[in-house]
Amino acid sequence: FKGGDTCEYLLSSGRFLGEKVWQPHSCMMHKYKNSEAKNCLIDKHIVFIGDSRIRQLFYSFIKLINPQVKEEGIKHGNIPFEDKSASIKVDFLWYPEVNGSMRQRIKSWTEGSVAKPHIIVVGAATWSIKIHNGSNEALAQYKINITSIAPLLEKLAISSDVYWVLQDPVYEDMLSENRKMITNEKIDAYNEAAVHILNSSSRNSKAKVKVFSVSKLIAQETIMKSSDGLHLPESSRDTNAMILMNVYCNKIMKPIDGSCCQPQPPLTLIQKIAFCFFTLSIIGYLIISLIHRNNYRKNKSCTDLESGEEKKPAISTPNVSTLEMLLHCFCKLGLIMTYFYLCDRANLFMKENKFYTHSSFFIPIVYILVLGVFYTENTKETKVLNREQTDEWKGWMQLVILIYHISGASTFLPVYMHIRVLVAAYLFQTGYGHFSYFWIKGDFGVYRVCQVLFRLNFLVVVLCIVMDRPYQFYYFVPLVTVWFIIIYVTLAIWPQIVQKKANGNCIWHFGLLLKLICLLTCIYFLSYSQGAFEKIFSFWPLSKCFELNGNVYEWWFRWKLDRYVVFHGMLFAFIYLALQKRQMISEGKGDPLFSNRVSSVLLFISIVSFLTYSIWASSCKNKTECNELHPSVSVVQILAFILIRNIPGYVRSVYSSFFAWFGKISLEV
Questions:
Q1: What residue ranges are annotated as transmembrane (predicted)?
Q2: How far is it between the farthest Cα atoms of the chain?
Q3: Torsion from C-alpha of 520, 521, 527, 531, nearest 10 degrees
Q4: Which residue from 449, 494, 496, 543 has the least number of CB within 10 angstroms?
Q5: Which residue in 231, 434, 568, 630 is the catalytic one?
Q6: 489-499: per-residue pLDDT in tens?
Q7: Which of 52, 135, 148, 289 is catalytic?
Q8: Is 230 helix (H, G, I), strand (E, B) or coil?
Q9: Cis-peptide, bond into residue 478, ω within 30° of zero
Q10: Which residue among the candidates 85, 101, 227, 228 is catalytic per the annotation?
């Protein structure tokens, strides 16, 4: 990326991804919701001046604030709009020609103490072509009028945002007889005149009128879908309104997926400290490495000329070597973080919005599946959910989730619903793994807790510091951290029930089940009591960890989405370990998990359940409704997968080392 103002690129260049998604050159465009638009434009006054095409843009713009607005205003007259809840005023002023009347209106804002609009959008030409039958005299007059208006617009541009909208091309075959004189050749001549005059005038001015020329590019692709050959189809003018919103609001709202018109954020104090720390680590490592090499050369074994014996070199002290290893690790981490920062937070590289196509998601899925099958090996042990199998499971899930995020597949509901099951499956393993550890080992020491919390959070804490992001931004790590603490507290509080104690007396099994029922009751209560949940996580310092955009709603939504699956994982671990202890399952190499008949029935039920869930998820029509059902039913496909993967002995005895490798770094991925 050669640099330059991304605002200029947003206003002047881009291309379509598919049929409706506009991609500006080199930067990402945020899709504003009406709540975000209101927050950005609060207490603002916006004015649109021009003809029917500008009126179209006006309506698309106010629909971003209030989607319920209907296009019912006077066609050839002024149209006011006001949103009292946010004190936003948007006016359309009917001035179809660039003439003395338009000049007078613009001049009125430059004089005295009249309140100036915060945003002014101006554009007109087709009426001048139509009324004067495309004469050259009309074009000459148009140049004179713009020349007189340009200084006034530049004066306004000192305190307001002023945009001159270039004329869109027309679809000449569809124009009615009274518009046949409006040709693309004439429109190009008027646009050239406007650009030349505004650019010439701005060279001597402190402020610049921004030329909104991107609308012309959009129209070239979509004007064929116009109803009359002159006015843009609704999707195109909505794109123009969204571009206008990005130009003004991105620097105010700073959306994560809107890099256009957003300056590079200044480094915070904590980022500067992190930068200094990593720099000193690199310098320290280089110095220590040079000293060690120098000592190695000096102490290199040499032959004693008198005795002919070899002298051994002096051995370095362990402390120095540990320090060198630590600095080496910090060097690597520093280089990785620098790469992340340059990609994500600096304007060094061009950025593009994600655009989903079926091929961009499914082709990589097939590719990694083939690779995974190619690297099949025998497992060291054949227990249900053995270490190699769980690593493999986490590995392929994380690769699928990675492809899902890169390809922007969340817009395709069937894929979204299946990915939700993968996230739930990861949390299921959290419940299964931690419960199994505490139940078998009975180790509730502080060392174990600190070890797990450090392993889960170290990378994310460093990312939060380097990238200047809140902890909740990387929501999955807070999620698994909180669930680990919940599992620990549930099992560690009196009475501590572990396998060794329960084996001596079966009554302890009922005690543990009672604990799990209490946990389920608490989860159920919190999931239906948003107020209670928000109160718990709104206390300092928890609020600092779990707030996003000033509230904990996002955290509540994420927690609620998979609220039961960790409990399901714990319950599954309890039942499985109980069956294993009583030798009710066969885990020998090549042996089916149960008797042949039971195994066949369970395998059939599992396959049917797995496919039934997939059919339901694929036929989902409403994301909100499906998300409501997901926490209760996701366990069906997870359990079905576990049984399909473990009931046949030959399937349980093999694993993919390719997927297992990624599984070992699944949290980082």
A1: 269-291, 325-343, 355-375, 396-417, 452-468, 474-494, 506-526, 561-579, 600-617
A2: 114
A3: -140
A4: 494
A5: 231
A6: 999 999 999 99
A7: 52
A8: coil
A9: no
A10: 228
183 in Cβ contact with 170 (< 8 Å): yes
Q: Look up 5 and say whether it is catalytic.
A: no
Active site residue 292: no
H-run or E-run covering 45: strand 45-50
* Amino acid (1-letter code) at residue 439: W
Q: How far apart, in Å, are the Cα atoms of 101 and each of 50, 111, 127?
A: 11, 16, 14
Does 328 qualify as catalytic in the annotation?
Answer: no
Query: Tokens 């999931």, residue?
Result: 527
Residue type at 516? L
Answer for the pair 386, 394: CB distance below 8 angstroms, yes or no.
Answer: no
Phi, psi dihedral angles at 292 (to 5 degrees): -65, -40
Amino acid at 164: W
Give 243-275 pLDDT, tens digit per residue.
999 999 999 999 989 999 988 889 999 999 999
The amino acid at residue 530 is Q
Tell me the mean pLDDT in the region 16-30. 92
- Strands 45-50, 376-378: pairing kind: unpaired
How many residues appear in the chain? 669
Q: What is the pLDDT of residue 512?
A: 95
Q: In Å, what is the CA distance from 273 to each residue of 267, 276, 280, 460, 465?
A: 10, 5, 10, 17, 9
Query: Six-digit token pair at 600?
Result: 């066949």
| 54 Ramachandran zone, left/alpha/beta (phi>0; psi -120 to 50) | alpha
145-168 CB burial, b ≥16 within 10 A, e <16 = bbebbbebbbbbbeebbbbbbbbb
CA distance 31 to 385: 43
Amino acid identity of 262?
A: Q
Say how many Å lie between the first and final Cα of the chain, rounded. Answer: 27
The two structure tokens encoding residue 6: 């991304």
Please tell me the pTM assigned to this model: 0.88
The one-character DSSP state at 209 is P
Q: What are phi and psi of 103, to 5 degrees?
A: -60, -40
